Amino acid sequence: MSGADQVSGRQIAAGRVLAGVGQEKLAKLASISVTTLRRMESSEGPASGLPNNVRAVRSALEKLGIRFIPENGGGAGVRLKFNSSEVRRIATLESEGGIVGEDDF
Fold this sequence. Notes:
By secondary structure, this protein is mostly helical. It has five helices and two strands.
């Protein structure tokens, strides 16, 4: 995983909490075990694990509206692209074959 794509365990944990999902749900969305997710979240520095698993977790969080902020002198972080009601509405529309937009995942 390139430096620009790397995420830390703390970013994953913070993103999960910000998205309002538990470890079990995120692990299921990323098709990994809860144990693997716990190991990633407890990592000091870059998230530990196979690169494809880290990418799957990052992708699942991004689909939940999380945006990863790279280290830019002020510290790496996460933020929500959408608020929780918008995420639920988007999920409802997508599950119904609803509106397709340019930013669809």
